């Protein structure tokens, strides 16, 4: 049984997702503006955040807010805030690639307690609550059971257009790819983490994330039985943006490779 808060989050994600799917079908007609090198903001992105914010804040007007497009609002309740990415995978969206998602997390006293990642193009709704497990379309999620790097597939983000530490990412790839079954770069951090939770990927790492990129995914992986840490051992991955996630058996050998350069 989902909590009242999670039901509100699911409703908001579905409503925003319906609008995004409609715009995705007409991607060539989207009005596009440039926010930064390689980082496009579309009318669809802004509208999705407006829809989500309206739904969530109408339901919980005292909660704080942190959104990719509209920034931060402390709210009257300093212990709770929504953390939202209305369209994770914007570049995929603009290029007609059906791999993007709505990501919504609820933070309580600096801890993520509820999460929704909605892949509207594929109609896959990933949800999780602290202590309640993780699910995709009502099916319980578990991280993979693989135990050897050689059998495992990992996901990451590779810096582009001058954004982020490209040399470190390339060094990671040079060390990990020869000892693993492969690395994927799909361009949507929220879905990378959801796929770790679902056992589709065995692990994920990336530097330079924003809180809205990973907040929901952190809880999703943990509630599916996985581990999530900072690349630097004492880091909070939500604050630092440097994150590593994997199933319990793979985390140590995987992290050893990634942390060698951090």
The share of residues in helices is 25-40%
Strand order of the largest sheet: 4-3-5-6-7-8-9-10
Annotated CATH architecture of the largest domain: 2-Layer Sandwich
For the biggest sheet, the summary is:
8 strands, mixed
Shape: globular
Number of strands: 15
SS class: alpha+beta
Note down, in words, how this protein is organized.
The chain is α+β, with helices and mostly antiparallel strands and 262 residues long. The chain has 2 domains: 4-140, Fructose-1,6-Bisphosphatase, Chain A, domain 1 (2-Layer Sandwich); 149-259, D-Maltodextrin-Binding Protein, domain 2 (3-Layer(aba) Sandwich). 35% of the residues lie in helices and 29% in strands. The protein has 8 helices and 15 strands. The chain has helices spanning 4-24, 43-59, 90-94, 166-176, 189-197, 211-223, 237-240, 248-259; strands spanning 32-36, 39-42, 63-67, 71-73, 77-88, 101-108, 111-119, 124-129, 133-136, 139-140, 153-156, 182-184, 203-206, 227-230, 243-246. An 8-stranded mixed beta sheet has the order 4-3-5-6-7-8-9-10, sandwiched between helices. Helix 4 (166-176) links the parallel strand 11 (153-156) and strand 12. Helix 1 runs antiparallel to helix 2 and helix 5 runs parallel beside helix 6 (211-223).
Spell out the key features of this protein:
single chain; 262 residues; alpha+beta; Fructose-1,6-Bisphosphatase, Chain A, domain 1; D-Maltodextrin-Binding Protein, domain 2; 2 domains; 8-stranded mixed beta sheet; 5-stranded mixed beta sheet; 8 helices; 15 strands; 35% helix; 29% strand
